[in-house]
Specification:
Blueprint (H helix, E strand, L loop, with lengths): L9 H13 L6 H7 L2 E3 L5 E3 L5 E4 L4 H4 L9 H10 L3 E6 L2 E5 L6 E5 L4 E4 L5 H15 L4 E5 L17 H5 L5 E4 L2 H10 L2 H12 L31 E3 L5 E4 L2 E7 L9 E5 L4 E3 L22 H15 L5 E3 L6 E2 L1 H26 L5 H7 L4 H4 L11 H13 L14 H12 L2 H13 L3 H14 L4 H17 L3 H15 L12 H5 L3 H9 L4 H4 L4 E8 L8 E8 L2 E6 L8 E6 H8 L4 H6 L3 E5 L3 H7 L14
Parallel strand pairs: 7-8, 8-9, 9-10, 14-15, 17-20
Antiparallel strand pairs: 1-4, 2-3, 4-5, 5-6, 6-7, 11-12, 12-13, 13-14, 15-16, 17-18, 18-19, 20-21
């Protein structure tokens, strides 16, 4: 690890100067908007967990952002960080308030006849509690009378238990509205590939990096994610179609469903009597992801652009203020039309031009390297790639239509990183030759090539400290030059892990609430994806399950599972052939089993009964291969 403070190389400093000359930094309208309606903020600025941990610090970036811009931060990202770091309670319009800067996302609060409607209760319960307390400090202790989840990403529902309780919902006092398909997508995304996504989220949001000039300077969409407790209370009412109207606590709301845009289940909605439009996460003050770097299903920019056009047609002539689940509101009808139109054209342009070029034979990386957005769009700050980027969005569009393969047979069966690394190092002339070439490239300012070239050496010999330091230095410079907050976080987190240690996964997005919300089928899916196939090749095991009270109207549910050829198949009913055991348990017993309670303990306590092979669960559990939350990324 280097002993001196990191500095930006001349190439990065020159690129920053070009950015300052190219973009309209004299336009301060966003700075006016971000502070408009400010009421107050939390004091002290930190939010703590029950064990005393700091899970959010509003002022972590203040010292750096209040001084002159350091050369180690891209000027455009610096500007965005100054905006997204502003925190507190703000009045959007009469009766509508937002808490911003207390997490990655915003909490919006709408005052009704008897209490308040909460829209998107942040990512974790601790920050959500701090947000609702801040509102009540200034507006009175009004009860929550309804909850709305705008979409199925965890930073828009994970803090729900910091605002309401199960009893609030079960009693009918607090209905929870969400777009149709919300629960399925919310739990599937965070469970099926949840461990891998959470590990990569540590890179994407840089939550383990120290904030500052050479560290974490925001994620574009917000500063970073909080690291408290993720929770979930399932919705009680679906919004199923565009034009659906609901009245919550005397407040009329008109909905637009937008599936397949920023999330698989998402919706925009208008408050007609207040001329206020919520655009969820479909129109924010940056270019969004079409494939988030943490991993997800590729989003549909064609549908996204269509729904933005539809939103303009449906709502704008009745809208005086537009707000979203991130960033700050936009006031004035003409400015709202500009924002939504620019966002619409941004996604449509990427989609259409990528298809034009792929149909001329260009592959994803080639298109990503050459495609530029129109100058008129580039001049608008809301189109800049602080969170998504043209580079990785274009590759996502290519992937959506063409898949991973670019058609070149040389790329059909490439070596994976470790064997490829050994071959590259040998072909170049050995470790010393690779390092020498890497150092020449570093001195020439070709940091991308350094990372690619020396990365082969790290994957050949992860204990080569010279290689690790050179790659880390290159990643660091790439981070310093990035306009995109998530790219910066990826680069700097990679550099940290090469120099210091694996940071693991700071935030788990598969808490007990998430597991409890899985359907029976999804619970068995979560077992199936943990089966160690080779270890289970020769095992055949059929189990019939009676899940008491787990069927419709509280009836018992007959379920079957069969392990053969390393595959766990399952479904309702009973096994067609012979069964090895019949297990009777409530859903709570199944959840306890998946949570790690030994089968013998469940049998002893009466939570589970086995008729037949008493070792069937031990056999099944013995071939499970749990996820690794600390898997390596920048080294083998």
């Amino acid at each position: 690890m280097t002993d001196t403070a990191p500095t930006a190389r001349p190439e990065i400093v020159d690129a920053a100067s070009a950015v300052e000359s190219r973009y309209p930094f004299s336009d301060t309208s966003d700075f006016d908007d971000v502070r408009r309606g400010f009421i107050g903020t939390i004091s002290p600025s930190q939010v703590h967990a029950a064990d005393g941990r700091v899970v959010w610090d509003c002022d972590a970036w203040a010292e750096t952002l209040n001084g002159p811009r350091p050369d180690t931060v891209n000027p455009s990202l610096w500007r965005q960080a100054q905006l997204t770091s502003v925190h507190g309670l703000f009045e959007v319009t009469e009766g509508i308030y937002q808490v911003r800067g207390l997490d990655l996302s915003n909490m919006t609060i709408v005052e009704g006849d008897q209490g308040i409607i909460v829209i998107d209760p942040l990512l974790t319960a601790e920050t959500a509690t701090a947000a609702i307390d801040l509102y009540r400090e200034h507006r009175g202790d009004r009860p929550v009378t309804a909850m709305i989840y705008t979409h199925s990403h965890v930073d828009h529902f994970g803090g729900v238990r910091g605002v309401i309780t199960d009893d609030d919902v079960a009693s009918g006092r607090v209905p929870i509205l969400a777009p149709r398909g919300f629960l399925e997508h919310a739990v599937a995304e965070n469970v099926y590939a949840g461990a891998a996504m959470a590990r990569r989220s540590a890179y994407m949001y840089g939550a383990a990096l120290a904030p500052g000039a050479a560290g974490q300077m925001g994620a574009g969409l917000g500063m970073t994610n909080s690291t408290g407790t993720v929770t979930l209370i399932p919705p009680t009412k679906d919004v199923t179609h565009t034009g659906q109207e609901e009245t919550l606590d005397g407040v009329r709301i008109v909905f637009q469903v937008t599936p397949g845009t920023e999330a698989p289940a998402e919706m925009n909605f208008l408050f007609p009597e207040r001329s206020a439009l919520c655009m969820a996460e479909n129109a924010t003050h940056n270019l969004h992801n079409l494939l988030t770097l943490r991993g997800a299903v590729v989003r549909d920019p064609h549908a996204w652009a269509h729904y933005l056009t539809e939103a303009i047609d449906l709502f704008v002539d009745r809208t005086d203020v537009e707000f979203a689940s991130h960033h700050w509101p936009t006031w004035d009808r003409d400015r709202i039309v500009s924002l939504l139109s620019e966002q619409r054209d941004l996604y449509a342009y990427q989609h259409d031009q990528t298809l034009r070029l792929l149909n001329k034979g260009h592959n994803g990386p080639e298109i990503a390297e050459t495609l530029e957005i129109p100058p008129a769009l580039e001049k608008a700050w809301n189109t800049h790639g602080y969170y998504g980027s043209i580079s990785h969005n274009v590759k996502a569009i290519y992937q959506r239509y063409m898949g991973w393969f670019d058609g070149n047979p040389a790329n059909l069966w490439r070596h994976p990183p470790e064997p490829a690394g050994r071959r590259y190092v040998e072909a170049i002339g050995g470790p010393d030759a690779v390092l020498a070439a890497g150092r020449r490239a570093f001195d020439a300012g070709d940091f991308r090539w350094v990372a690619e070239l020396v990365g082969h050496l790290v994957f050949t010999d992860p204990d080569d400290t010279d290689a690790r330091e050179l790659e880390a230095a290159a990643l660091e410079q790439l981070g310093f030059g990035s306009e995109n907050g998530t790219w910066r976080n990826f680069y700097l987190t990679g550099a940290y892990e090469l120099r210091v240690a694996n940071i693991g996964t700071p935030l788990s997005t598969t808490p007990p609430d998430m597991i409890s919300a899985l359907t029976t089928g999804q619970l068995f899916d979560s077992i199936a994806i943990q089966i160690n196939g080779p270890k289970a090749w020769d095992i055949q095991l059929a189990i019939d399950w009676t899940l008491t009270g787990a069927g419709e109207a509280g009836k018992d549910l007959a379920y079957r599972s069969r392990l053969a050829n390393g595959v766990l198949t399952h479904g309702e009913g009973t096994n067609r052939d012979s069964t090895d055991a019949h297990i009777t348990t409530a859903r709570s017993g199944l959840l306890a089993l998946l949570g790690g309670t030994p089968p013998a303990d469940l049998v002893t306590s009466g939570q589970l009964a086995i008729d037949g092979d008493q070792d069937c669960l031990t056999t099944l559990l013995g071939v499970l291969d749990p996820p690794d939350p600390d898997f390596a990324i920048v080294a083998p």
